[in-house]
Design a protein that fits this description.
Elements lengths: L3 H16 L3 H13 L10 H12 L14 H5 L3 H25 L4 E3 L2 H9 L20 H9 L30 H7 L21 H13 L2 H8 L8 H8 L6 H16 E3 H12 L11 H11 L18 E3 L7 E3 L25 H14 L14 H15 L1 H9 L4 H10 L8 H14 L3 H12 L4 H6 L6 H10 L4
Antiparallel strand pairs: 1-2, 3-4
Helix pairs in contact: 9-10, 10-11, 10-19, 12-14, 12-15, 13-14, 14-15, 16-17, 16-18, 16-20, 18-20, 20-22
Organism: Poecilia mexicana
Protein name: Rab-GAP TBC domain-containing protein
Pfam families: RabGAP-TBC (PF00566)
């Protein structure tokens, strides 16, 4: 049974997560900023003042009834078989990390000697020139090791014989989750219909963008997060994308944010973590070899190393099905606790979540702040096992169902020759297409992820890549020529049901 403080903290985390991006959240945020300037409001007693006000005003009675007997992990993920699979996956990763530490003789965490700290300070902006002997360092996991875990998922309470269609057995994902079909997607993504203007299409056709100019200036001035999110559904102008994304994510770059980044930087300089080597290796194998992102190598090291030290990231585990890894350390940094301060173990391709943002933000503290918000809202769902509609399991299932429904002959043919479509598309989805699309098209796709507060468009675009019948092998080998928004529009609104 949870105590009152834990239950309240969990409730607040769920409420904040649901409010983010809404008009109500924008109003609350604006009112909160105004209240901070009032002399009767004291930050040191704010928490208790709010609690006592809710009790005396009867506000608590208006909240939905809670279930104090429900364990914390049940509220984070309601399905037992999902929780079991996630726990097993975490145990496997942690075992791999501990084995790596033992075999290489490298501790999970250690304090850097003074000389090493001074050297790191001097080369902070040139870390791309460092080669810490990564050849012998194996990857902890990547898409190739994660997909088999998702394929093995089964609901013990579900009888597959009850499925109404034989097509349900064609795909690799065999779990019963609620996902949207084309009519439901059309209703949810109405702003993408063929008659609505879209940045990414109409700007290329030289259509007068007056409807955009009138709105975008007022959005930035008024700092309306909900309006910015609504605006993003039809694409963000290149020159204002950085400001609009930061507004949607409520990411500021005020003095306290810059100070927080400097504290994280100091943590990187003082202590060395085993996962630092994983970050170095991932950047070298992915972003450094990418024609678009290799120039940002130093930025990627700075952001990702700071991210691994940020305990604020632990807050997302209140609504994430995963739990932060824990282990015993030889040095008393955290004697028996979380040895990765953020609780996130980097995997192959992790740096590609940061790389596209480097085109938008050239200040490390701002870049870091936006990336952290993107991760704790969206990207963590792409490598966690959960029943969330934006989770990787649901995205894989939606991808297979849509492809089976609208291209059954293609799906069946690929299945017969041993080329299951999901095995090809999974690597696209787990990276949200970063590293596969050209940067301008990727940013247009991420506009819609932020605008609709959902990763569903990732599954839709994966289906589109298979739906192209002209030179399919060339298309699947190189997605950089795809035009994202016209394809999504055609798939959703020009496809016969």
């Amino acid at each position: 049974m949870m105590d009152e403080g834990t239950e309240l903290s969990l409730s607040i985390a769920h409420i904040v997560q649901r409010l983010k991006g809404s008009h109500l959240h924008s109003q609350i945020e604006r009112q909160a900023k105004d209240c901070l300037h009032r002399p009767e409001i004291k930050l040191e007693s704010l928490k208790e003042d709010v609690r006592s006000f809710l009790k005396t005003s009867g506000g608590l009675s208006q909240l939905p009834p809670s279930h104090p007997t429900a364990p914390l992990e049940h509220l984070k993920e309601p399905l037992a078989y999902m929780r079991k699979a996630q726990a097993s996956w975490e145990k496997r990763i942690l075992k791999s990390l501990n084995s790596m530490s033992t075999e290489l003789g490298v501790p999970l965490a250690r304090k850097r000697p003074g000389a090493e700290q001074k050297e790191l300070i001097n080369k902070w902006n040139e870390m791309g020139t460092d080669e810490p002997g990564l050849q012998t360092l194996p990857r902890v996991f990547g898409p190739c090791s994660h997909l088999p875990v998702l394929i093995s998922l089964r609901n013990p309470n579900h009888d597959s014989c009850e499925d109404v269609s034989a097509r349900s057995h064609w795909g690799l994902i065999q779990v019963p989750l609620n996902i949207r079909d084309i009519p439901q997607l059309r209703q949810a993504y109405t702003e993408l219909n063929l008659s609505s203007g879209q940045l990414g299409i109409d700007d290329l056709a030289h259509v007068h963008p007056g409807i955009y100019r009138k709105q975008k200036d007022s959005l930035v001035v008024e700092q309306d997060s909900a309006a910015a999110q609504q605006y993003s559904r039809r694409g963000c102008p290149t020159g204002l994308r950085a400001a609009l994304w930061a507004l949607i994510l409520n990411s500021t770059n005020q003095l306290q944010d810059m100070m927080h980044y400097e504290q994280l930087r100091a943590g990187v300089i003082q202590h060395n973590l085993l996962v630092d080597n994983l970050i170095y290796k991932d950047v070298k194998l992915t972003a450094s070899n990418d024609d678009y992102y290799f120039v940002f190598e130093d930025f990627l090291y700075q952001v990702l190393l700071c991210f691994s030290r940020d305990t604020a990231v632990l807050e997302h585990f209140k609504y994430n099905s995963a739990t932060p890894p824990k282990s015993y350390l030889h040095e008393k940094i955290h004697s028996a606790g979380i040895f990765i301060y953020s609780g996130v173990i980097p995997f192959h391709g992790f740096s590609m979540y940061v790389a596209p943002l480097c085109f938008l933000y050239n200040e490390p503290s701002k870049l870091y702040s936006v990336f952290r918000e993107m991760y704790i809202r969206y990207f963590f769902r792409l490598h966690s096992i959960s029943s969330s509609f934006s989770g990787i399991v649901s995205l894989c299932l939606q991808f297979e169902r849509l492809l089976q429904t609208h291209l059954p002959q293609l799906f069946y043919h690929l299945r017969q020759i041993g080329a299951q479509p999901l095995r090809i598309a999974f690597k696209w989805m787990v990276r949200a297409f970063s590293g596969y699309l050209s940067t301008d098209q990727l940013l247009l796709l991420w506009d819609r992820i932020l605008g609709y507060d959902s990763l569903e468009v990732v599954a839709e675009l994966s289906d589109l890549s298979f739906s192209l019948t002209i030179a399919p092998q060339a298309v699947l080998a190189d997605l950089s020529t795809l035009k994202v928004i016209p394809l999504i529009q055609i798939f959703l609104f020009a496809t016969a049901i």
